[in-house]
Amino acid sequence: MACGPKCSFFCLFISVWGVIQLTLMGIFFLTHSLTLVDDLPLTLLSHSLERFKFDADVAYFTVAIRCFATAFLYLCFGILSIYCICRNKAKERSALKSSLKH
């Protein structure tokens, strides 16, 4: 693989951190956390309160789904990093075995 052991561990760390953060953000968006209302893609002017509530509900759900989808991508890259770590360890073991035979 093109990824060495240090790079693999770094990518794994970033992936784990990303999965945790984005999953929590997705949960907070699903629960309509008021602290995240500034991060919603809403227009500043609404014609009525009901329209604003509807737009906010749709925006909260959309952003939550995006967070969960991105967390899934980070999970996939984390699995790829684990695979790279295992391949690097297998290469090290085979190199050690071949050096011990000679």
Walk me through this protein's architecture:
The structure is a single chain. α1 (5-30) packs antiparallel against α2. This protein has 102 residues and is mainly α. The mean pLDDT is 90. The radius of gyration is 22 Å and the shape is rod-shaped. The protein contains 2 helices and no strands. The protein starts with a helix and ends with a helix. One of its GO terms (cellular component) is membrane. One of its GO terms (molecular function) is RNA endonuclease activity. The chain crosses the membrane at residues 7-30, 58-86. This is Ribonuclease kappa. It is a multi-pass membrane protein.
How are the SSEs ordered, and which strands pair?
Blueprint: H1 5-30, H2 49-101
Kindly list the characteristics that best describe this protein.
102 residues, single chain, mainly alpha, 0% strand
